[in-house]
Structures are given as C-alpha cells and as structure tokens.
Amino acid sequence: DQQKFRKWATTKIRTTCPHCGTGCQVDLLVKNNVIVGAEPADGPANRNLLCVKGKFASYKFVASGDRLTTPLIKRQGQFVPASWDEALTLIADKFTALKQNYGGNSLAGFSCSRSTNEDNYVFQKMVRTAFGSNNVDNCARVCHSATVHGLAHTLGSGAMTNTIADITTDVDVILLIGSNTTEAHPVIGSQIRQAVQHGTKLIVIDPRKIDLTKNSTMHLQAKAGTNVALINGMMNVIIREGLADQDFIAKRTEGYTAMRELVADYTPEKVAKICEIEPEEIINAARLYAKAGKAPIIYCLGVTEHSTGTEGVMSMSNLAMLVGKIGRPGCGVNPLRGQNNVQGACDMGCSPFDFPGYQKVADSKTIAKFEKAWATKLNPQIGLTSTQVLPAATRGEIKGLYIFGEDPIVTDPDTSHVRHALESLDFLVVQELFMTETAAYADVILPGISFAEKDGTFTNTERRIQRIRKAVAPRGGAREDYKVFCEVATRMGYSMTYDSPSQIMAEIAQVVPTFAGVNYKRLDILGSLQWPCRSLDDPGTPIMHVGQFSRGRGLFMAIPYKPAKELPDATYPYLMSTGRMLYQYNTRAMTGRTAGINKLANHSYIEINYEDANRLGIKDGDKVQVSSRRGKIQTYAAVGDQVMQSSVFMTFHFPDGNVNEITNPVFDDIAIIPEYKVCAVAIEPV
Ligand code: SF4
Description:
Elements: H1 2-8, E1 11-16, E2 25-31, E3 34-40, H2 52-56, E4 72-75, E5 78-81, H3 84-102, E6 107-110, H4 117-131, E7 136-137, H5 145-155, H6 164-167, E8 173-177, H7 181-184, H8 186-197, E9 201-205, E10 218-220, H9 227-240, H10 246-252, E11 253-254, H11 256-263, H12 268-275, H13 279-291, E12 297-299, H14 301-304, H15 309-322, E13 333-335, H16 342-347, E14 354-355, E15 359-360, H17 364-374, H18 386-394, E16 400-404, H19 408-411, H20 415-424, E17 427-432, E18 444-447, E19 456-459, E20 464-468, H21 481-491, H22 501-511, H23 520-526, E21 528-530, E22 554-555, E23 574-579, H24 595-600, E24 605-609, H25 610-616, E25 623-628, E26 631-640, E27 647-651, E28 664-667, E29 674-675, E30 679-685
Parallel strand pairs: 6-7, 6-16, 8-9, 8-12, 9-10, 11-22, 12-13, 16-17, 17-18, 23-27, 24-26
Antiparallel strand pairs: 1-2, 2-3, 4-5, 4-18, 14-15, 19-20, 20-21, 23-30, 24-27, 25-26, 25-30, 28-29
Bound molecules: iron/sulfur cluster.
C-alpha cells in the first residue's frame, strides 16, 4: 500500500507559466509522470493569482496525443518518420551545402520566444557560428521590437523600467495605452483593477472600450494609429501649463528644445481632430498624469504594432521624461511583453542587430569579444529581421531557414506572401511541439520539448529571470532542444556541447555583463533576479534609470505625427485593428488543446459597432466576409459598442478566419515591425 501510495502521490513542481509575459509562478501537480493540475504559487509578479490560461491551459497540451515525438523527413510530398541521426545528418548536409554555394548570409533562423533563455542562447550561437550568419530573430520582431529599439534609443535600455508590483501598488494614476490588459496579461489586469479599488485613478487610451474602461477615470477613445499625435498634444498642454519638470529636464536629459518646438504645433484642438476625440479629454488627461505623484505609463502592442511603432514608443519616453516620472518608484515606461520569454529571447541575442545582452553586431569590439569567447570567426554583417528574411526568401536570397517554435504562416501579415516565401526556400527545418501550418511546408520536422519537460529560465516582462523545472519526461523520442542545436552545429563543423542548462547560464553570465550575477544557485535560493545583475552580490535591479539613464542622459525625440499607411476609403471603408482575447493564446498551439477553453472560445469574430451593423444588415453572430487589398476571409460578427463607428476589431488566434490573410504587410522603418493595428477592410453579410 505504501508503494502504491508513493506511486500515485502528487508531486508539486514549481515553475513559470508558459503563456504571457507576466511570469506567474505555478505549481504543476504531477502523478505518475503525468501533469494532473496547476495551482497558483506566490511569485513576485502574480502574488498567488493565475488567470484561466495559467490554471487550466498551462499543462493539458503537454500530454496531448497530437505531440510530435519523432523526426519527420518529407519524401515525395509525405512526411515519413526518421531516426535522429538520419534527420540531423540531412539538416547539416543541406545547410552546409547551401553555405558553401551561397555563403552564410543565405541561411537564417527564427528562434522561439516561448522557449528558455538557454535554448535561445544556444540557437543564436548555432546560427552565428555554424551558419555564419546574423540572420537570427524571434517573434518580438512582430510584437515589441519597436520597444527594444525605441526605449534603447531614448533611455539606453529597451526594457520595462519598473516592476509589476511597484506600478500597481500605491500609485496615484496609471496611464494605460494600447493595452487590453485584462485579456492579454490578465493577472496584471487584475492588479490594475485592485489598484483602482484602492484609489488609483486610471486613464485608458484605446480605440476600443476594453474591460478596464469600466474602472477608468477617463477613457480617451482615440482612433487607432494616432498615438504620436495624442502624446504630442498632451505634452503641448503640460508645457503650456507649466507642468513640465524643468529641473529633471535640465539635469538628466537632452534634446528638449527641438521636442518642445515641435509639440508647440500640436494644440489640443488640432490633435482632437486627428484622434477624433474632444480637446478637453486631451487637456484633462495631460493634467491628471502630470500632476500625479506616482504615475506609471503601461503600454502594449497598441503602441508598437504600427508603421510608426518605434516613434510611438519614443513618445512614451518623451512624456515620462517631460514630467520627471522615470527612474523612481511607481513611475516609468512599462511595456507589457507578450510571450512568456519574448524578453529573454531578445536578451539572449536572437536579433540580427544584437549579440546576447544587446551587444551590437555593428561594433567591431563586440565581434572580437564573441570571436574570442566562442573561438571562431564571426560574420560582421548585420543580419536580416524575420520580416526581411521572408521577402528575401521569395527573391531567392535566403535559401535555408531553421524555424524553432514559431508559426509565421499564422502570425505574420499577409499570409499568402509568407506561404510563397516558404515555398521558395531550398530547405526548411521546423522544430515544434505540434504539426503546424508552417511545419507542413518543412523538409524536416524535429519534435520539440515543452516547458514542463525541461529545466531552464524564462525572463518575464519586468526583466525578472525565473526558473522553469522539469516536471515530466519528454514525449516519445524527443530530445532537449539545446542539444539538438548543438548536434546541428557540431555536424556543420562548429563543435558545441553543454551538459545542462545551468552550464549554459554560466556561459551567458560570462559574456553578458548584465547577467554576470545570475546563476541557478542564486535563482533557486532567491526565487528570481531582475537584470541588470552585474555581480554575485548584486541583488538585481527593480527600477532602472535611477540617478542616471542607461545611456547617460535621457534623449527627447521630436516626433511628427504620420498617419497609418493604409486608411479607409470608398472601397474598404472600415479601419481594422487586431489583438488578443482572454481565453486563447497566440496561434492556440497550446490553449487550443484544452477542451474547456475551446468550449469558451472556438472561433474567430469581428467586433462591429451597432450602427454599422444595422446599416450593413448584419446581426450579432452572423457570418460575414471581411476583405482587404490582400484577400478575404469569413468570420462571425460580434455586434456591440466596443468599437467606434467605422472601426472594427478582430482576434488573431484562429486559422478559420485567420485575420493575417488580410492584414497589411507594411513596416516601421526602424524596427521593421508590421502595422497589425491599422488596415482598411470591407465587410458584407455572407
Ligand atoms: Fe500565465 Fe499570463 Fe495568465 Fe499569468 S497572466 S497565468 S503568465 S497567461
């Protein structure tokens, strides 16, 4: 009986939720090598809370019968099971031949923002050493690359300045812009709501009536794509009314005069017309934010996913610096990163511009440093972003691509062009948990390992590095992801081997100064560390830019408003935005395998204003066709007042009614991020 009890006893494994960037701590309940439940744990970001995804959809996919368990090689159009040796040899031979014939720049890799820091570090090292290319990127390119570029340029570091607890506890005002927090980062949304219950005033700037508008003091329902104008208008008011912090500006910033001269032209009256709101709303929001003691700016993809995304992010820095609300508790500029480890994938150098720790490819000293550390010659040429790799594949310039845990056919704009790009490749490898739309185009598919089957670390949106721990054995013959990358690199001639993820972290600490004080022993004792953490006695950095910005002086940017690249016209009269919903997560690869979640949300929809729906003869729940210059899809109407007249909104989670068939593949010039948040569409009943 004792033995039987032990066999069935439940073990609790403390780990980190694999969905959004909040980084909630969760205990997986394991019985006989199967995860049977998940319980909230008291982590610094979640304080014993979990959302519906963390509670019910964080583990069922692990044991799904759909998991890939063995390598597959495409032969005569069919995937055929293969041995690891056969698959890895084929991959190494093909990539080596392409490199010899066309050079390292003909190869590229997309890394996985849901996988660990350690996997991401080894993946980019494989691309840079064995492939001989800096064409490595991760899905931050299509969500928060504008944050990385915009905050790094203005503040010196492209990351959230404060911590979640700090900006949701005892603050006077929260300025929430372009973030549907209760659906995209539900636990942070709950903490914002709790803050309001304790007296915090909430300003929501969003083209939709999001859930948190019910808790807001004011909701500025500005037209999508007008953030830069709106922030310029608020700064115009703050300067004119003498609310700017002149002492902070003089001591800690540069570039103020040019910015002040530019925003002098952005009167509330002029901006109100651009944003389609009232001038008083701009004036009142500016006063409330500027006069508050503690007031963080919290933003998300409503700011970044525009053809002016980087400029929108720089506007956040401008506003916070103007009133001296940065580098101190309860303030700052706080992007909410989307995926569980998209912060970490960026930190680990899965970027064509940056080695690990944002050390620049363009800097010859950095190249020399990594050549010494990795004992090989490196390509000094800045690589292509993922959004540049796909068109380059179509042009025949990229020949071989390795995609680790990403599904660009569903996630990138204008799907038909993505398909064409993948078809144009000479050789495509996809490493995944499940067969995906993108994997179907691969020449070789390798089975990946889920978060519950490996050790490692994730870094959440507040720069907090936390452990994940192996709870169950990998499925079938799947191997640890970093070991697969080591095998590929070694077979291509660059010998690479690690015994464990902690050994990889030890190497990261050696080459990344902001991770120098990070190791597994400290993480296991302390629970987490926030970078920068520069030595073994450094407790980490909860608030950045205290006393001095990472770049020295904070840089004001004079940013003129530019309209979105495609606006409604007579043929396509509706302005469409896209975004997340509560129950599903990204491409649904994980959440879509939980029956209860699918019961709650199993199809795409488009939010349409009552007035527009009446005019079009569309009722709530009707099937409708949505078309743009890129194509047409069918989905279901959700009629209400969440969106303004002439605006519509679609979720991006579902392959039926995949909104990215019709989104606009135009890009921000700096971060090369797509403009998911604005395109023009037509709607008709089916
Ligand atoms: Fe997971 Fe995000 Fe929900 Fe937390 S808020 S449980 S990290 S999905």
